[in-house]
């Protein structure tokens, strides 16, 4: 499947994929992103890929980073 191929490539590249984690805030600091998760955990990332599945709850922190959305 396409998902299996994507996950295989991601693993080969050493990229961590986090799913089912609620991000409540994301701040760009220098060359990193500081993410605050809904469980209170904080992550530091070089890059962030957001796949919302149509969820509109992420709009606030994405807009704060300069993104806009069209309904």
Task: Strand order, main sheet: write it out.
Answer: 1-2-3
Hey, roughly how much beta strand do the residues contain? 15-25%
Query: Would you tell me the structural class of the helices and strands?
Result: alpha+beta
Helix content: 25-40%
C-alpha geometry: globular
Quaternary structure classification: single chain
The N- to C-terminal Cα distance equals: 30 Å
Which parts are unreliable, with pLDDT below 50 for 5 consecutive residues or more?
none
**What kind of sheet is the major sheet?**
3 strands, antiparallel
Order of helices and strands: HEEEH
Number of strands: 3
Spatial extent as radius of gyration: 13 Å
List the total number of helices.
Answer: 2
Indicate the mean pLDDT. Answer: 81
Q: How does this structure look, described?
A:
The chain is an alpha+beta fold and 71 residues long. It is built from two helices and three strands, in the order αβββα. The chain has a three-stranded antiparallel sheet. The mean pLDDT is 81.
SSE layout:
Elements: H1 2-13, E1 23-29, E2 32-37, E3 42-45, H2 59-64
Structure summarized in a few sentences:
Helix content is 25%, strand content 24%.
Label this structure with key terms:
single chain, 71 residues, alpha+beta, 3-stranded antiparallel beta sheet, 3 strands, globular
């Amino acid at each position: 499947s396409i998902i299996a191929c994507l996950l295989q490539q991601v693993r080969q590249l050493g990229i961590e994929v986090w799913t089912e984690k609620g991000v409540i805030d994301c701040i760009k600091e220098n060359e990193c992103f500081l993410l605050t998760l809904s469980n209170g955990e904080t992550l530091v990332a070089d890059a962030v890929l957001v796949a919302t599945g149509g969820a509109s709850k992420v709009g606030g922190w994405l807009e704060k980073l300069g993104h806009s959305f069209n309904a």
